[in-house]
Design goal:
Length: 451
């Protein structure tokens, strides 16, 4: 078989790359090769155990992509032969390509903790067959310990208490969601999670997972305390899935991802890589970033898909701004860019702008939520470095506004005078828009700042 453009992997990154390539290069034949006929929406996986109830409710249809002219092949690539621009497959004939995009994703990290192989210790993989295999078993858990309070750990904890389980969430750092939020911002969501029934243990490390007859029975902490458990969820992160790329000779970085340039090109002509399998770099520091987000991968995928045959300087990635949002039902959180803590650690001089208010006007309207916005600016230039929001459902789109502001290096004065639309049921009031008021708060702190 011969195709102009081939994508390995049908996850959000692979799918977005295929869609972008199809849109820009309409005369090219596009093929997506993936292992599963059906694939899960990765961000929805925690919710299949509670809110969604069934795994099949989190399946994304490939029919719209097929309707647009993208071909799919359900098979497994076993070897990339770059010099011949050829792929060897498990059951199908070889596929030749002009341009190749590697989107092989990531796999869960299981720390080398004694007892991690006991029955009942579960990691959150992304394959539909695997999630189906653990679905009923995990839902039957009565005493659940979740190790790792990143967004998967927090979301899984919140879903498990809905099923009536006793849940303990353990985090080695000093807050939940420590890489995305400062302690002063995450305090309210942590309190909400606790009120739902999750016992949160921060600054806590696990020394051993204990068991009886091959089954997990508890988690032993460094302090010596034993927490009873019949299920342990390892939410300790993911590593790039690069075995295929590595065997083909693609360059791998120190954090384990495929090295690409700003156009997502690898060291082999005609081969691009996107998503979790890529070596990401921070937008501001250019240091390696281990944060893996579907939204970041989809952005990279569009860049790769548009740059396959011709380069334009406007189509390039300048690094990850680490933007994401999540919800605990009655409170939502969003973050982008550097936290205050990380900015200070990198040597930035910063000014903080904050605002607390509500997300409707007047505040007596139904479903009104308290809303807090924290903005981090560089002191000298007044450029926005990061943003954090806690509030209601509008949080998700508000953080997207601030994500664009970060990408465009907007200043505190530009945000202070931004124009915006308001509506009583959708936003804060005309004179109380929280992004603007937080920017005004910061502006007042910057000495001799020139408008």
């Amino acid at each position: 078989m011969k195709y102009d453009i081939v994508i390995i992997g049908g996850n959000p990154s692979g799918g977005s790359a295929a869609a972008a390539a199809r849109e820009i290069y309409k005369d090219k034949k596009v093929l997506v090769i993936r292992k599963e006929e059906k694939s899960l929406i990765p961000c929805g996986i925690p919710y299949v155990f509670g809110t969604l109830e069934d795994v099949d409710n989190d399946v994304k249809s490939i029919q719209p992509a097929k309707n647009s002219g993208i071909d799919f092949l359900i098979d497994e690539v076993q070897k990339i032969v770059p010099d011949e621009k050829r792929l060897e497959l498990k059951t199908s004939e070889d596929v030749n390509y002009e341009k190749l995009i590697v989107a092989t994703g990531s796999t869960p990290v299981v720390p080398p903790i004694e007892g991690s192989t006991l029955k009942g210790v579960i990691s959150i993989g992304k394959e539909i067959d695997y999630i189906k295999s653990i679905h009923a078993f995990l839902k039957e858990g009565k005493d659940v310990v979740v190790i790792g309070a990143g967004f998967i750990g927090v979301e899984m904890s919140n879903e498990m208490v809905k099923l009536g389980a006793k849940v303990t969430l353990i985090e080695a750092m000093d807050t939940i969601l420590p890489l995305a939020f400062d302690e002063d911002v995450i305090a309210a969501p942590a309190q909400v999670l606790s009120s739902h029934g999750v016992e949160i243990r921060v600054n806590t490390k696990v020394s051993k997972i204990e068991g009886n007859d091959g089954k997990v029975s508890g988690v032993r902490l460094d302090s010596g305390e034993l927490i009873t458990a019949d299920r342990v969820i390892m939410a300790t992160g993911y590593r790039p899935n690069v075995s295929l790329a590595q065997e083909a000779g693609l360059s791998i970085g120190s954090s384990g991802g495929i090295i690409t340039d700003e156009y997502l090109r690898t060291n082999y002509d005609g081969i691009f890589a996107v998503g979790d399998c890529v070596e990401h770099r921070d937008f501001f520091t250019r240091k390696q970033s281990r944060l893996m987000l579907a939204s970041t991968g989809a952005s990279e995928a569009r860049i790769a898909g548009m740059n396959l045959y011709d380069l334009r300087v406007v189509r390039q990635t300048k690094g990850s701004i680490a933007i994401f949002s999540t919800s605990l039902d009655d409170i939502s959180m969003g973050a982008a860019g550097l936290t205050e803590k990380s900015a200070l650690a990198e040597g930035f001089q910063v000014v903080i702008g904050q605002n607390k208010g509500v997300d409707h006007h007047p505040a007596c309207l139904p479903d009104t939520k308290e809303q807090m916005v924290k903005l981090i600016f560089s002191k000298c230039a007044g450029v926005i470095l990061g943003a954090q929001i806690v509030g209601g459902p509008s949080t998700g789109e508000m953080i997207n506004i601030l994500g664009l502001a970060i990408q465009k290096h907007m200043t505190v004065s530009e945000l202070a005078i931004m124009q915006y639309g308001t509506q009583p049921l959708l936003t804060a009031g005309p004179g109380n828009y929280p992004i603007v008021l937080a920017a005004m708060n910061a502006l007042g702190k910057i000495e001799n700042f020139k408008m």
